[in-house]
Amino acid sequence: WVDPYSERVWQYNIEIAKDLLAQGFDEIQFDYIRFPTDGVNLKNAHYTFRDRGMDKESALISFLKYARKYVKGPISVDIYGANGWHRTGARTGQEVELLQKYVDVICPMYYPSHFHQKFLYTKPYDLRTYRIYYYGNLRNYYIAKSNVVIRPYLQAFKMNRFYDNLYYGPKYVYNQVKGVEESLDMGYTFWNSGTKYNILKKVFSKDKKLTMRLKK
To answer: pTM for the full model?
Structure first.
């Protein structure tokens, strides 16, 4: 981890962003823009560059305000999916209603496996993944004052969790897509850390509209 309060860190990242735009990339995405949240030694974290009275939210906002000044292109940020339902700024630094002032796109990671396994677990149970994306999209959009594109990450991987063990498969993934399309339909990105996306062939074969979009 680097110190999010450090302007040297900000400058380093912005120089990379400027170089990428110069090479032809059409968007800069700051992935996992947050403070560390896990580990037995979190209490030992020391932020040398933190000014008195500065909190985690203001650290991220200060960076993005700086980025907006120097990055001459669209900016997107990845955030935890829980931001659609819970305030997490004091822990992560991420507050959607603040982030929206300085970015063009917010990409929540609503991965169903990462929520409590009984979260939105109501009948019909197999539509849980649809609900998470449908309501998550709408909630984040309105928390962001309808001011940004909400383009979530979709879970294209299985974890050894209660719900995944029961339901993971093409329909699990397909319902995420439908949840996005039937809420805001501003786009989405699939994620699998091992880059194994074979399941998408079965997902898109279910719907001619989705198949055509995949071919494009």
So the answer is: 0.93
